Amino acid sequence: MVTFRGLSAALATTVVVAVSLAAGLPRVDTEAEALFREQVFPVLQANCFKCHGPLAARIRSGLVLNGRDLLLRGGDRGPAVVPGDPETSLLVTAIRRTDPDLSMPPKQALPAEAVAAIERWVELGAPWPADLIETRRRSDDPDETPAVGDSETAPLAGDAPEPLDHDVLLFFENEVRPLLAQNCFECHGPELDKVKSGLRMSGRAALLRGGERGPAIVPGAPEDSRLIEAVRWTDADLSMPPDDKLSAEEIETLTRWVGLGAPWPEDGSGEAVAADDDGEAQGPDIAAGREWWSFRPVVRPEPPSVAAADRVANPIDAFVLARLEEQGLQPNPRADRATLVRRAFFDLLGLPPTAADVASFVNDELPDAWPRLIDSLLARPEYGERWGRHWLDVVRWAQTDGYERDAEKPFAWRYRDWVIDALNRDMRYDRFVLEQLAGDELPDATAGSITATGIYRIGVWDSEPDDIEQATFDELDDQLRVIAEGFMGVTLGCARCHDHKFDPFAQEDYYSTLAFLNNVRRYATPRFSRDSATLRMLDSSRETVQAWEQDRTRRIAACSEELKQLMTLGRQRAAQSRRDAQSADVREAQATAEDRRTPEQAELIAAAVHAGPPTDRDIMEALSHDEGRRVADLKLQIEELHKSFEGNATWALAVQEARGAAPDTHVLIRGRASAPAQSVEPRFVQVLSASDEAARPVLTEAAPNGRSSGRRLALAQWIVSPQHPTTARVMVNRIWQHHFGRGLVATPNDFGHTGTPPTHPELLDWLASEFVQRGWSLKAMHRLILTSNTWCMSSRAEDAACLERDPDNTLLWRQSLRRIEAEAVRDSVLAVAGTLSDERGGRGFFPRLSREALAGGSRPGQGWEMQPDTGREPRSVYCFVKRSLLPTLLEVLDYGNTSLPVGARSITTLASQALILLNSEFMGEQAAAFAARVQREAGDDPDAQITRAFELALARTPDEAELGIARDLFRREVADFATTGRDLVFRARLPSRVDTAFLQQLSGADLLFGPRDGWTYLRGSWGNSYNSTLELDRAAGPVALRAEPAFGDGSVSARVSLRAGCEVAALVLRGAVDGDTFSGVEAVLDPRAGQLRLVVQADGVPTVLAEAPVELLPETWHELRLQVAGPRLSVWLDGQGALDGEGAPLLEATAEGAVSQGLFGVRAWGETLRLADVHLVADGTPLSLQADDPGTPEQIALQSLCLMLFNLDEFLYVD
Amino acid sequence: MTSPPQQDPRNDGNELSRRAFLARAGGGVTGLSLLSMLGAAGMFAEGAAAGPCAPGPDDPLAPRATHFPVKAKRCIFLFMFGGPSQMDLFDYKPELQKRHGQTVELDRRRHTPVLSRILGSQRHFAQYGESGQWCSDALPLLSQHMDKLAVIKSLYTDSFAHGSAVLQMNSGQIIQGHPALGSWLTYGRGTENRNLPAFVVMHDPRGGPISGAVNWASGYMPAAYQGTLFRSAGDPLLDMSPAPMSFRAGMTRAMQREQIDALDALNRRHAATRPGYSELAARMGSYELAYQMQETAPEALDLSQETEATREMYALNDPVGPHRLAVGPAVFGRQCLIARRLLERGVRFVQIYHGGGHQQQTWDAHQGVEENLGIHCPEIDKPISALLTDLQRTGLLDETLVIWGGEFGRMPVSQQEGAGQVECASGRDHNPKGFTMWLAGAGVRPGSYGATDEIGAEAVEGRHHIRELHATILHLMGLDYHKLTYRYGGLDRRLTGPAEVELIREVIA
């Protein structure tokens, strides 16, 4: 029997095989058969099979040309051939092209000799030797190579069928194959670029392997075969063919075939399928794979010798210079000292130096000034914050789950703090890896190392997965990708569904690696309990645990005791009230001696006794409202204490393994959890191991702690073993990247074939080897790099030769100018404004979010908190990171993706960045703080102020020209601001519907922005509660009330301007606080309805007394006057008398006894309401009202100037 | 780059000199392409994209050629968040109505099949137009447009849960972190408008969709491709004008001009000593653009430029319905009209969410499907009809792809024995196994495609996963879903993922 064993995968022509399929097959070639074999079949195959071949993607007219039976059966038009009669054979008619409706092949006529051969063959009876059938073809179009990710998995080791019996063969070829071809191949054909559901019917092995739903057949067991199930249409979810059900006979044919073991002749070995699938079935060539540059062991190269030896401060320079000299390029000179110190500050700390920092270094003439500066920076806590943030990108750190609920992951911050601390302590990198991957399994595990395992817990988590089994593997996949990309720089995750398309990672490598993690318990809603899957007590000593248990017992007891007392109280009261309620008759009956009671009396008493003790309901009714709530609260507390109790113990989000033997791990067909294939043992990625032998881990039964399998420790130890080819390379590349703006390998998470190869491979290897030799010390590497001449080069891109030959600086002839990252922008702004708090660590800081950012959520504000305004804010690394709600400033400045590992952030330049840096509330506040600082430090002289502002922002003094520009702006703005900025401005700070819990944290002033001094703010009425959200009642608040004076009769007049989008604007008189709302009289402008209304608010209910249609144009000044005199209320709008009340009012009403005295107030919602020229007359006394003092025009102009400095390129870029 | 001309630093109001500088900084480009320098440095940190549509690193938003010629220039996605009930709107199931009240065994949310009570639609269906497509009386005005719609009744998706299903409808993946459809379109075709964002999102006043901004994030692509929230009143864009709570509340446009001019003058001096860094020029351009956007973006909101008849057509004068969760048709109408104005101004992709928050605030009809339709159908019926009429009238429909639908559909049975959900006899649970969406406009062949089973529980004929809808949308927009890739994490990523995909050929004209 001939198989495809010898066929090369590269053989890209149509393969038609005449095979002697069975030993006993009689083979007598008649003349006609020879004609067919030599002349007819090749013609059919070349010209007809595309549409009528057994493997055609789409069979036309139902005609399949593959055997005599099929010819005779024919297609839609009837039999194709009448043996012996060419004139009535449709096949012949078609190729003669005499019938315009039936001309074949459609595009081009066959050569005359081919037509003649076929005519003759038909005349001779159209014999078709059974052995001559088309069996397989593959595409010869090189453009049709499968796309990334489209490849198939390796075939299962199918049991090779016995050579087929002739009858079986005929059965398959004559009945089964045509059936499959006609009904299935349109979607599952072997030739298709893409097949549905991953099922490609290219042979027996392919059917065994199946598609997304798992194997299509179980040979010999039709009842268990999906194929049969599908064609029977018993499962609505899997009915094939989808449009036309097969006939009963056809189904029977297939059933019989599967029952026979699904014989498929040419598919006797897996290789046949392999040939079809570009040879992938053999798996990647591991030995050859180990030759890839990053998978080879690190061999320490000798630094090359260079001509300009005087420019070599350390070997880094030698490697870089050698390349430059080779190309005849000159490296840039050293940057000036002021540039260097600024660059070092940003590189190491992410903060700008002060002018004093710069001066002290520039003036330090001692030879060790530079290394001393570096050491002093490395010793500062800001170093860990800066470099910790880089690492947090790699591990996709965030503090919430993502998805619908996006709940907080408690103590996710401990992991962040652990990273920062580890870097500040210069923890050896190998230890850094070990603690994160297996900190709990280490023999010397500590609280810190357990915290480090939070890396497994900080990814996204779908609390409501659609398919739990699949979600479990998605979570494992997330962890595996972080480990593979983060620590090893390989995209092993791509081998989840199939062998890696470009790198030598077999699908089995993926699952063997997954096996190390498979015993990790799934993330679950965190519970403070000893069996929590996700939380761990950091000090789990017997004493601590006991103390925690006792604490819990004590609290439960305390709650229970209080509950008991309340219940007793209620019971007593219930009993008492029952007694009180008893009728005089009962009391009389009870007072009567038993023997003297009448039957009626006895009955009454029996009934009273029968009522039994008070029920819970009686008790609850006997308690006051507050007592009742306390009871409910205590019950809840007790329940919570039983389930989850935090206590005084210290908890961390950490990894936990399931006790007991680790579960089997299976290769999953196409990554589908529902389609497990062979099981795999934990094994290291083969190509990253020195040999196949070395890929086998030594696994102990369990880790020293006895709670886990020890598998993760084995994996971690392998990753940090000096033999691992990528670990050190990947980390030194990350370090390099953040010192030069680009790594030696530009794709830091991908050192494989799809990544970018290193620009300086020897340098990378030398650094990797140096890293290990220097005890995996990051700080040692920073020192090394920062003391190289290469790092110290100027960033100027002026050298014509270099620009011409190497415009992208691939060869490192210069440093690069870089925009600082989102966090560094915010931190620099705070540092310069003098508002940077030195608070470090902990749960995190909640920046104030704009209402626009809040509005995007389905429950606006859910999970966000309102921070008390202290005027200072911590560094950005301490901002709370909620996956669905990133602070806009950071997000717009390319903060990055919190769901996937990020190796290098994008740096974009967008107009939205300009808008936020110029116009946002945060930037405005910081500019004001900056200006105040400048004024404090420089006094009132504009030139001194400008100079000081430059010093603070840029650590240098401005030159004359710059001073000129700044002075000019300052002067213009002083003039401009002299005429503006005195209006009263009110603006809503929330969307109209917000999360209930979020709203509860807010004060009135958090809802409505307006003047501060002497005003109180009420939250207004929020209701229409729905799904944990509340909606503002626009008729009742929020409102700002002027603190004094309270008055009875009076008036207010003002010019009012509404911004487009303003929904409500109102002036209030006799306003009084009434809980969250107010009472009083108001003149309401409703631009949406185009109405002016006179309203009385009392008991939280507005009553409209009068209304009139008015035209309210946005951004237009309207004159409005509201007057109260006893019960008489009047409103004027625009026109005569609007401001002085001389003319007739537009609205008038009388409100008897409504509200008699109160304050002036303003109500606004939607967009900004602006009030100018406000005149208030309170009981005859005129009072003028102004906005908070915005400062003198000079002060505002200085703020404006300071804001501009924050927008300077020099501020936002580092040379 | 050549050195910039030396300027008198106080000559900061000189428009020409700034332009001249920017022009030279950008290598001699002028006019609109000057603004195309809003590029990025090191944008494709994970490696550049492949294919003929790959944008250059200097200008991520430059307009790009399609893979093949198409008429479509822009796209609007009317996202009915919550999952509209197909059997009450377009997917007429007489059998379902006939069998109302009978029990049927159906699996719900991947639980074992349970006996459930069939909930027949209360709506009356009729055939409309020449095509005779079915539509229910819940959408009396939209039913007049059936001849324009390609109604696909046989879509299915992977997830029963809103969070992941909305993500998947937007990004193809149930997992966060992948770029949205709008990001892909912007990446594939760039923008033809520099004064407005290329990818605009508007949401419902009741709230955003579940997971919020994640749904229009650019995932692993640069921020240039993320969706921008666009408000339909006040300032359309975030921080469009100085925050009134800052000292700059009183700033005028002239004052902002002065400030940007001074900034420009200082930045020019900085850049002059740093030739070779095009991003510095790009940054200056970004401030200029920001300044222009302050005028152009609000202009798109200025509906006073429309006739009263148009405003009336879009329901801008219509009252809010009586239901406490209703916001009335004027809100969505206003958004649709603004969307048309944005499309006219060259915005590539507009997505409007109708329904925001949870349950009856959205199309999520657990608590009563009639009540739900009563809230939401009147809110979209007139606006969408107006949009279709208006697009056709202005000829924009030939160049605009319109997409309507939600993240999944609903069950044909009542939510009586809910699987952990609200129990409500007149409510319907989520149904990802069969649901309806429609396409209209550029390159779309109207008609009805595919079918669910006789009670509408599952797609059975011409089934298409929403991956295939995505592939079809890309195709209609002139992009080959297979060739449009972005390199991330070692893979050339596609919107449709690695799985095999077939176009929904029938809907392509």
What does this structure look like?
The complex is a heterodimer of chains A (1215) and B (509). Chain A is of the alpha+beta class and 1215 residues long. Chain B has 509 residues and is of the alpha/beta class. In chain B, 28% of the residues lie in helices and 15% in strands. Chain B has eleven helices and 19 strands. Chain B has helices at 15-25, 31-35, 94-98, 162-171, 181-189, 253-272, 278-301, 308-313, 329-344, 369-393, 466-476, and strands at residues 74-80, 103-106, 114-117, 125-128, 133-136, 149-156, 199-202, 228-229, 349-354, 400-405, 409-410, 430-431, 435-441, 447-449, 451-452, 459-461, 464-465, 486-488, 491-493. In chain B, strand 18 and strand 19 form a beta hairpin. In chain B, helix 6 runs antiparallel to helix 7 and helix 9 (329-344) packs parallel to helix 10. Chains A and B meet through helix 21, helix 35, helix 36, helix 37 and helix 38 of A and helix 4, strand 8, helix 6 and helix 7 of B.
